[in-house]
Amino acid sequence: MDKQRKQQYLKLLQQLLTCAKGKEIKIINSNRELVDADLLQVMAQSAEYLTAKGQQNAADFLLRIRSKLLKGLEIS
Questions:
Q1: Which of 4, 37, 40, 72 has its CA at a distance of 20 to 30 angstroms from the CA of residue 11?
Q2: Domain coordinates in residue numbering, the chain
């Protein structure tokens, strides 16, 4: 994953963390090209970082979305 792609992932995660409740699916659907195994990895890393910073609610939120995305992707 290159630096530009990682920045796109982080921007998407920021949008998810700051969106109104219930808008997550719309944001994911409008960024479908970013939904891949690397995004899931960045989500896990970001959740770990947020937990370390004491932002457990945000970390849990990302992990819930990640879990839903995992169910929709075939990852070997």
A1: 72
A2: 24-76
